[in-house]
Design a protein that fits this description.
This protein has about 270 residues and is mainly α. It has one domain: MetI-like fold. Helix content is about 75%, strand content about 0%. The protein is elongated.
């Protein structure tokens, strides 16, 4: 009986997780369908209106519909985090593989780059890069991507080194199979394997980093919708309208929570396999 209840609870939890994930993906992919109103349209007669039938999440300090802005801001925050993670994990995997398998000069070059990157905290490195790139969506995405490369490179290097000394890789080397084929068949899969679960967790970290940088005014600029910018702009008006901060905050925290759950699930499955 207890086991049946536990299984049922797990199934319900998984179902809710899937539904929430689909909702976030729909927010990123189909914002116009979910929120057809203009997220930039202001209305001076509807400033800081509380949640109502007309504005289900209320309006902000410029009279803009908060629900519409949260939906349209999903892509810049979540999309930026996903893109930054893909770029950072891809570059880190390549760098880690080179540091483990490439010629001597490639290994030395990749190792020095990784050490330099690891010497600085990710957020500080992103801030330094933004000082040169300037504010904007692509600037903050690239800055976060570059900042996380060293961490992924170190993880990939561990997997790549283990693959190099494996029996399969040594047999392929004995059979004089080309280096490129050995890398693609044995080293890269081994380097990517531990990164999969970590990358999903990395998306959550990247989303938080992008939101924090945008909160500081270094990401997408007003009046474009972005969860970090909405929190930054709304903090001044929180005593007059709590909803301008609470609802964007819930959207951000919910996305990070969902990403963390998926990341843990993928990590456990990877370890068991």
């Amino acid at each position: 009986m207890i086991n049946n209840r536990s299984v049922t609870a797990q199934r319900i939890g998984t179902g809710v997780l899937v539904l929430v994930t689909v909702a976030y993906l729909a927010m990123c992919a189909l914002p116009e369908l979910l929120a057809p109103l203009d997220p930039l349209k202001t209305n001076t007669s509807a400033i800081l209106q509380p949640p109502s039938a007309e504005h289900i999440l209320g309006t902000d300090q410029s009279g803009r519909d908060l629900y519409t802005r949260i939906i349209h801001g999903a892509f810049t925050t979540l999309g930026g985090g996903i893109l930054a993670t893909l770029l950072g994990a891809g570059a880190g995997t390549l760098l880690g593989t080179l540091s483990a398998f490439g010629p001597r000069w490639e290994r030395a070059f990749a190792l020095r780059l990784t050490e330099i990157g690891m010497a600085l905290p990710d957020f500080l490195l992103a801030l330094l890069l933004l000082a040169f790139l300037g504010p904007g969506f692509w600037s903050v995405t690239i800055a976060v991507a570059v900042a996380v490369v060293p961490g992924y490179a170190r993880i990939a290097a561990v997997g790549a080194r283990a693959a190099i000394i494996s029996d399969a890789a040594q047999t392929a080397k004995t059979l004089r199979i080309s280096r490129l084929r050995r890398v693609c068949s044995y080293v890269l899969p081994a380097a990517l394997r531990p990164i999969l679960g970590i990358a999903v967790l990395g998306v959550a970290t990247a989303v938080m980093a992008i939101a924090a940088l945008t909160f500081l005014g270094l990401g997408l600029q007003a009046p474009d919708p972005d969860w970090g910018a909405m929190l930054s702009q709304g903090k001044t008006y929180v005593t007059k309208g709590w909803w301008v901060v609470v609802f964007p905050g819930i959207a951000l925290i919910g996305a990070v929570f969902v990403l963390n759950i998926w990341g843990r699930k993928i990590q456990r499955r990877t370890l068991h396999d």
